[in-house]
Amino acid sequence: MTTEHGTGGTVGTNGIHESHLSHRRPSCQARRDLRNGLLFAAPWLIGFTVFIAYPIAASLYFSFCEYDAIRGPKWVGLDNYRTMLLEDDLFWKSLWNTLDMVAFGLPVGLVASLGIALLLNQRLRGMAFYRTLYYLPSITPIVATSILWLWLLNPQIGLINVLLQKLGVANVPGWLTDPAWSKPALILMGLWGAGGGMVIYLAALQDVPEALMEAALLDGAGALQRFRHVTLPMLSPVILFNLVMGLIGSFQYFTQAYVMTGGGPQDSTVFYALHLFNRAFLDFRMGYASAMAWALFLITLACTALVLRSSARWVYYAGEGA
Fold first, then answer.
1. Rounded distance between C-alpha atoms, residue 310 and residue 237, angstroms
2. What is the pLDDT of residues 31-66, one digit of tens each?
3. Domain range 85-314, CATH architecture
4. What is the DSSP string of 188-252?
5. Backbone angles phi and psi of 65, in degrees to 5
6. Is residue 86 within 8 Å of residue 317, measured between CB atoms?
7. How far is CA 62 from the centre of its chain?
């Protein structure tokens, strides 16, 4: 038997408000919805657990162990990190090589992508063809691209040096055989794939309001002033995105060096990811490689956080002042 009790719901024979019970105990429909939702999400949850969460946790554990993937892991504490920082000279060499690519290769790639996007943003006949032409190299497999450029950069018969000789250059670069030219050669090769960033810049350029350009033009702003005071601020969120993604990619630079140089000449292209790979799959020092992976994660995280923290000073978001 139930009785009404104001507006708070009905009161049962045991004196407990039934509305309170309904809030406390989920209905059959709610439980069914929860079960169905978990069933639909189960493939992703299982995949995330097996292929992402567990490997991350295992890698963190192995970084404190001596582990060769054949015998079981043996706990050694911070020995891997101590060896990495104090005894492995190639660790610091690979880190500096990687930082060189971040400091020089990344800005060159960003500027090249933006420059190509500005050229391809013109309203000319056949522009769609040129946009496609510049974008295609960025979706070419990196291994195939590396083999192609291995031939182009050949010091004796490579097309680039042949053209330089025809232009009158007597001492052509050694490219991948000269430590002084090995990293510039890889940076030059990286321009081949500038179309990926170009597409993002191009989309952002087409989203710049025409009213702002017309207002700047009426105020007497020249092309350079319009680019500096209108185009760049409107592109700043996209520049931030490409900068962060390029920063993460530069710290993981691997395939080109692995295919083209193997780390040579004279360890000038032993990048961090290549050194990590060699320790893991050539020396079978999986524990040490796991420690290197976590060090790389922390370095990348710190650099990314620094960029994001600085973005408040130079990134402009439309409507933020409204």
1. 12
2. 999 999 999 999 999 999 999 999 999 999 999 999
3. Orthogonal Bundle (1.10)
4. HHHGGGTHHHHHHHHHHHTTS-HHHHHHHHHTT--HHHHIIIIIHHHHHHHHHHHHHHHHHHHHT
5. -130, 160
6. no
7. 25
